[in-house]
Amino acid sequence: MLVGKKESTMDRVNRGLARRYRRERWFRLFGLSAIVTSVCFIGLLFVSIGANGWSAFQQTEILLDIHFDTEQFDVDNLSTANYGALVKNSMQTLFPDVAGRSEKRELSKLVSSGAPYILQKMVMQDTGIIGSSQKIWLPADDEVDMFQKGYILRDVMEGDRRLSDKQIGWIDQLFAEGRLEKKFNSTFFTAGDSREPELAGIRGAVAGSLFTLAVTLVLSFPIGVATAVYLEEFAPRNRWTDLVEVNINNLAAVPSIVFGLLGLAVFLNVFGMPRSAPLVGGLVLTLMTLPTIIIASRASLKSVPPSIREAALGVGASKMQAITHHILPLAMPGMMTGTIIGMAQALGETAPLLMIGMVAFIVDVPTAVTDPATVLPVQIYLWADSPERAFVERTSAAIMVLLAFLISMNAMAVFLRRKFERRW
Amino acid sequence: MESMSAVLKSGGALFSGAEGVIQAQVRQEDKTPREDRLTVGLPFVDDARMTCRGVSVFYGEKHAINNVSIDVGRNQVLAMIGPSGCGKSTFLRCLNRMNDTVEGCRVVGDIQLDNLNIYDRSVDVVPLRAQVGMVFQKPNPFPKSIYDNVAYGPKIHGLASSRAELDEVVESSLKKAGLWNEVSDRLDQPGTGLSGGQQQRLCIARAIAVRPEVILMDEPCSALDPIATATVEDLISELQEHYTIVIVTHNMQQAARVSQRTAYFHLGDLIEVGSTDRIFTNPRHRLTEDYITGRFG
Fold first, then answer.
1. What's A203-420's CATH class?
2. Domain ranges of chain A
C-alpha cells in the first residue's frame, strides 16, 4: 500500500514535470518568434527606406562651358545680369542645330532652373571670372535625374512620360560626351528647402530641429529634474501632491497635437511670440517632454537606496547636501537616459509643430531661435506631400537622416547609462 | 485587539478546558497589565550624557514607543535589546532625530543633550547629527572612494581647513576604526569594494571623523560574519574610552560582551534597565527573564 502510493506520487510528479517543461518550451518559442518577427519587420523597414532613399545622395549634373561675357555684366549691379541667358547660350553652343522657340525651351529645361542662381553666386564671390570661360558642373533638372536613375522609362509612350524623345536624345548625347554624370549630392546636405527637388536640401530642417531641441533641452532638463527632486524629496505626501502626480502621469499620455493647440493659444496668441519659430517649437516640445523627464527622473531618484540617504543625513549633511552630493549623482544616469529618450521623442514630433506654423515652406536656413524654420519630421511630411517623383527619394533620404539622429541619440543614452551606472 | 482579548477571555470562561492555551495566547499578544510594564531597575545615572524623559513615538496612529525615560551614561556603552518590533531601533533613531525623515512620525517628550531638548524648535538637526553620529544596520558606504567616504563629514562641516589636515582626520579616523592597516594603500578605491566587515568599520570611521560625542549603532553586526563581528565588537570596546555609545542588538551575547548597561524593550515599553551583569544574571522583571532565557524573542 505504502509503496504503491509512493510510486503513484512520483508518477504524478513526473507526468506533471513533462507538462511543466513543455509549457516553458512553448513560452520560449513564442518569445523567440515574436523577436524574430519584429526584427524582420524592422529589417524590412530599413531595407525599403534605404532602397528608396539611397539614390537621393546622388544627383545628375551637366558639364557646361559658360562664357561670362563682359558685355552682359554691369559691375555696379551684378545681381541683375541675365544669368539664365548664360546657361541657355551654353546649351545652344552644345547643340547648335536646335532651332525654334519650343525646341530651345525644351533644351534649356534639361538644366535645373536653379542653375542661373549658382552662376550668380559664383560671380558675386569672385568678379574676376567675368570675361573668362569656365567649365562648370551644374545640376540637371529633376526629370533628367529621374531618367538617369531609371525612374523614367524609355519604352513608355512619349505622351505618358515627362521627357520628350528629343530630350532623351540630347541626354544620351551629353552622356556619351561625358558631360552628364551622377555625382554626390552635396546640395542635399547644404541647402534649405526648395520647390525644385534638385535644389532642395535638409540643412534648414536639421538646423531648425537642432534649434528646437536646444530650446527644449535647456528648458525641460532643469525644470524636469528640479520638479522630480521637489516632488520626490521635499513635497509633503497629501491630496494635492497626489493630484499633481496623477496629472503629470496623465500629461504623458495626452496626444501631442493638444500641446500644439495650447502653444498656439498661449505662446502665439497671448504672448505674441513669432510664428514658425524654433523658440515656440521648443516651448511646446518642452511641455510635451516634461512629463517623460519627470517620470523617469522620479523613478531613478526612487531607485537610489535609502541607506545612502540615511548615511548622508547620519553624518550631518543637510537635506539639500544629501540630495546634491549623493542622491542626484546616483540618479543622474537614469535622469539623462530619460531626458535623451524624451529628446528623441521631441525630435520625431510633427503634430504639435504644425499647429504653431512650423509647417511653412521655408527656404532660408535658420540662424537663430526666432527665425522661421521647420524641423526634420515636418520636412519629411512636406516632401512626402509633394508631387514630383524626385521628392520620393528625398523623403526616404530625409527619413534616413532622422533615423540616424534617433539611433545615435538612443545609443548615447545606452552609453551614458553604462558609463555612469554605479552598483552598490 | 482589546475586544479580541475580551472575546478570548470570555471564551476561556466558556471553555475552561482550553484556558491554558488561551492564556498563553494572551501573553503572546502582550496583555501584560499596565502596571507590570513600568520600567524597573535603574534607568537614571549620575553622569548622564543624554537624558530622555517621557519619550513617546507615534507612527501616524500607531503608538510605537510608550513613555520611555532613560539616561545614557557618559563614556559607557548602553545596549538596547528586545524582540523584533519592540521599538528599540525607533527609540535609537530618536536620539539624533533620524526619525524626522520618516513620514508621519511624531515624537513627544524630552530628550536632552547638553541641557537642551533636541526636539526644541531652536535645535538644528545638522549640528545635532554631527554631535550624535550613527552607524546603520547594513553597511552603507557611499559609492565613492574610501578616502571620500571618511572625508565627507569633515568636509561638509568645515572641520579641516587644509588638505593636509583632512588627510590627517581621515587617517586618524581609519586608525581608530581599526581599518587603516588594511586600506592605507588603496584609499582611492571605492568603499563599496571592501568586504562587509570592512565596510561597516569604514562606516564607523566615517561616523567618528566628524568627532561626535555620542555614537548610535543600529544592529551594526547583524549583516556580518562572526569574525567581522568580533572585530567590530573589539572596536566598540575601544571606542568607549572616548565616546558614549548606544547600541541596538539582537544578539544577547553581544550585549553582554560590549555594554555596561542594558535596557530591555518590549512592544514599545522600556521594561528594565540596569547594569549588564545584573540584567543577565538577575533580571527582575518576568518579561526580561523570559526574553534572556530564550522563552520568546
1. mainly alpha
2. 59-183, 203-420
